[in-house]
Amino acid sequence: LSSYPSYIDLLPSIQTCNITNLPENYFLKYYLYHALTWPQLSFVAIVRPKGGYKAGTGRGAAGDVSGQYPKVVGYVLAKMEEEPTDGKQHGHITSLSVMRTHRRLGIAERLMRMSQRAMAESHRANYVSLHVRVSNTAALRLYRDTLGFEVEKVEDKYYADGENAYAMRLDLTGQW
Ligand code: ACO
After folding, report:
1. Is the ipTM of this complex over 0.85?
2. Which residue has the CA at smallest separation from atom 33 of ligand 1?
3. Which ligand 1 atom minimizes the distance to the CA of 131?
4. Which run of H or of E encompasses 29?
5. Phi, psi at residue 92, to the nearest 5°?
6. CA of 169 to the centre of ligand 1 (A)
7. Do 73 and 99 form a contact (C-beta atoms < 8 A)?
8. Residue among 64, 70, 56 nearest 1 (CA)
9. Residue 97 Cα, ligand 1 centroid: separation in angstroms?
10. Atom of ligand 1 nearest to the CA of 109
11. Beta strands of the chain (E only): which ranges?
12. Which of 142, 159, 164 best tests ligand 1's pocket when mutated (most atoms within 8 Å of CB)?
């Protein structure tokens, strides 16, 4: 048995990271659904505890006082579109965030590139789509300038508070 925590062990910490960084939150079972249905597509950035892991420590990450549990500092939660309206296999980024303490280190870019590659390689995705708030300049720069996404359209009042979203997409064909 490995003492290294699995992705599923980390789901509560991933959920905490999401709640800390974004107003769009999900039930734990939705994270689990992603992990079970598309295990190749979601990734997590962790800070390893000093001295490594010890068997039997760390279950129930939030209450861990042993210092032996990894800290989740970023994640990308991704899926394949189950009923694509255009009939084209494609991936979708459900959620991405990085803790403030660990931003501008290239973590989000790396998480996104890993997920995009897995979508193309494991699921033959033609493209990847996502939604982002029109006011979210940091994420927009990441998606448009660093990763090469394009704005497909504006979706009016997409978010619960009435803000509009850019629907963005990136072509994945012929990249890998
Ligand atoms: N201002 C301007 N450009 C930025 C910023 C910023 N604050 N942050 C990232 N970028 C751009 C830059 O071009 C950057 O490259 P550079 O550092 O060489 O200039 C590039 O993106 C890559 O940055 P990363 O270091 O990989 O990004 P980071 O790990 O800091 O995470 C993120 C970016 C995810 C947007 C982070 O700021 C965050 O968690 N924000 C809050 C949550 C959020 O908005 N998530 C996205 C919602 S949309 C969705 O989930 C589909």
Report:
1. yes
2. 108
3. 51
4. helix 28-37
5. -145, 135
6. 17
7. yes
8. 56
9. 8
10. 26
11. 43-47, 71-80, 90-98, 127-133, 150-155, 165-171
12. 142
Tokens 């003492």 correspond to 3
Question: pTM for the whole thing?
Answer: 0.92
Buried b (16+ CB within 10 A) or exposed e, 122-135: ebebbbbbbbbbee
In angstroms, rounded to a whole number, what is the distance separating the alpha carbons of residues 142 and 171? 16
Distance 17 CA to ligand 1 centre (A): 15
Per-residue pLDDT of the chain (176 residues; tens, 9 = 90+): 445 678 888 999 999 999 999 999 999 999 999 999 999 999 999 998 777 766 555 444 444 545 567 899 999 999 999 999 999 999 999 999 999 999 999 999 999 999 999 999 999 999 999 999 999 999 999 999 999 999 999 999 999 999 999 999 999 998 77
Q: Which residues line ligand 1 (CB under 6 A)?
A: 21-22, 93, 95-98, 103-109, 130, 132, 136, 138-139, 141-142, 145-146
> Per-residue pLDDT tens for 4-33?
678 888 999 999 999 999 999 999 999 999
Q: How far lies 48's CA from each of 45, 67, 79, 148, in Å?
A: 10, 10, 26, 31
